[in-house]
Amino acid sequence: MYLTKQEECILNGEHGEVMERMFRLLVRLGDIYGADAMISVGSVQVAGVSYKSIGGPGMEFLEDMASKGAKVKVLTYLNPAGMDLENWREYGFPKDFAKNQLRIMDAFKRMGIVVTATCTPYLAGNLPRFREHIAWSESSAVSFSNSVIGARTNREGGPSALAAAICGVTPNYGLHLWENRQPTIKVTVDADLTFNADFGALGYYVGKQVKNKIPYFTGIKDANTDHLKALGAAMAASGAVALYHVEGLTPEADLVEKKNLETISVTQKDITETYKTLNTGKKPDIVIFGCPHASLREISALAEKLEGKRLKKPVWICTSRMIKEASERMGYNEIITKAGGSVIADTCMVVSPIEDMGYKTTGVNSGKAANYLPGFCKQDVCFATIDDLVEAQS
After folding, report:
1. E strands along 320-387, which residues?
2. What is the DSSP string of 283-294?
């Protein structure tokens, strides 16, 4: 792999211990995957933020990095934390957990990282441009940025993303290269897709089928960015899809090579069966929306459905702090709160310790959450549309 003279100096330790350690990690990664050089990145999103995910060793590593003067060179955001960073007491997050989570956030802040904890950074002030090279970690954010925006990133681990943020570069391999962004399988869809949950079910089904291939979808007549967010998130969770194309909808769909592709079909029956597969519980103790983090449109839709109602059990909608503040200005938060629900910032049901907060069955409209909750949070799952979930709780 070609390195510039400045990069060789970093590798030789001339820019300090932290830079050398982080750059050496990137060089090893590049060597493994056959990168020809390093490329500059426009932004980074770092995973490994929740105390639930990284525990004491991860916290101590980050504090050590911060104490040694590590500083990021590019705009860097964080994946969701394990709790609402401002209102954790109100929502019942454990005190000991909160203490450690706040230590983690302080370490990131000292490194110059924006302590905006969200899996939808593109909705919260970190929006890459078409074909911009970035180094993002969270699977749904990687999928959205590659597929819907047309930026270029591999699915980075927490350490490699942090290294890219500190060094300002990433190895040039994988999805940074045009030849590796071509579809490898065609998916024809013949099903009625209306709700986010429908797209989540489609994504879950397709992810299971295609694993880490790059699907090219036909038959999806229309989809907004929330639908595409749900589709990509579920495919990344049930498979390992980091890039997909949708005919007529995503920016690279008209540019990629589509000849001689293996084809699979998805019918209404497949979607219906997927709903059944993802339902492992009967009556939820809590309903949680916002996986990936909810947009303002999704919060407004929930507020409209809850206006004048009174909920029987807790309903959360998870989002970024920035979207929560916009929602507050619009009066949506007040409507949801009056109904007995909560707008939760900075976290989500997957990385928060909901299993330690008395919840055993969670209702979701997210294919990603439905995939992860049984293993990560020991939850039974009620997977349904927003209409069905709200109706059952009010």
Report:
1. 342-345, 361-364, 380-383
2. S-SEEEE-SSPP
Domains and CATH numbers, the chain: 5-178 (3.30.499.10), 182-276 (no CATH), 279-393 (3.30.499.10)
Please say whether the beta carbons of 164 and 334 come within 8 A.
no
Q: CA dist 282 to 152, 234, 349, 390, Å? A: 41, 22, 18, 15
User: DSSP letters along 236-277, please?
Assistant: HHHS-----EETTTSTTTTTS--TT--EEEEEHHHHHHHHHH
Kindly give the pairing relationship between strand 43-46 and strand 38-40.
Answer: unpaired
Query: Cα(166)–Cα(163) distance, rounded to whole angstroms?
Result: 5
Above 90 in pLDDT, residue 5?
A: yes
Task: Express each pLDDT in 208-260 by its tens digit.
Answer: 999 999 999 999 999 999 999 999 999 999 999 999 999 999 999 999 999 99
Angle between helical axes of 367-376 and 268-278 (0-180°, round to 10): 30
- Cα separation values, 244 from 88, 175, 256, 287, Å: 36, 11, 11, 29
In 3D space, the residue among 83, 103, 100, 49 whose CA is nearest the CA of residue 356 turns out to be 83
53-93 pLDDT tens trace: 999 999 999 999 999 999 999 999 999 999 999 999 999 99
CB atoms within 10 A of CB 43: 24
**Measured distance CA(389)–CA(129) in Å, rounded:** 36
| pLDDT score at 394 | 82
* 279-334: pLDDT as tens digits: 999 999 999 999 999 999 999 999 999 999 999 999 999 999 999 999 999 999 99
Find the helix or strand (DSSP H, E) in which 187 lies: strand 185-190
Q: β-strands 38-40, 169-171: how paired?
A: antiparallel
- Alpha-helical segments (H) within 2-94: 5-11, 17-33, 51-67
CA torsion 365→233→292→114, rounded to 10°? 170
With tokens 């074909």, the residue in question is 131
